[in-house]
């Protein structure tokens, strides 16, 4: 591990292995779980378009959510973060660049929604630095799809911290939550996860 890389000791590291297509359903499951517990969640995505889509999807499903990305003005980003500090929202969806420009308030849980496109170890450490309040423990949950295995295994070896499988109720995630996601996407097609086809084509081209 890099000598400059600091991993918070009070963070519990989890992985959730899922197929790419029901990824949104598991995100909704985890966000609702955290919202019921009064916990704030930070969701890290890889692009501005994904940040916008995920934020709008969660909003449509009654999960109080704000987004943070570099297309927002500095004043808009500051206003969003202020609302998060006042607990007016239970979730924030952000890119790594935006979170670096405007450090987010401490949260109880982060979700690495995207591990694709070669997330590096420093990026992971930066993400989890947002966890914890006054010495309290927190959770970092990484979504691992069939396209993320190499990145995940490399990251786990480099960080040298234990990752545990996060237990979810698959029946609820794959029935109730998936049904809610599909209904929202049928009403607004822009909420559909079109990145699945993009990532699949990229991986297939890499194998050629």
TrEMBL record:
Coiled coil: none annotated. Pfam families: Helicase_C (PF00271). Residues 10-176 form the Helicase C-terminal domain. Keywords: ATP-binding, Helicase, Hydrolase, Nucleotide-binding. The keyword Cell membrane does not apply. It comes from the Eukaryota. One of its GO terms (molecular function) is hydrolase activity. GO terms for cellular component: cytosol. PANTHER family: ATP-DEPENDENT RNA HELICASE, ATP-DEPENDENT RNA HELICASE RHLE-RELATED. This is P-loop containing nucleoside triphosphate hydrolase protein. The lineage of its organism: Eukaryota, Fungi, Dikarya, Ascomycota, Pezizomycotina.
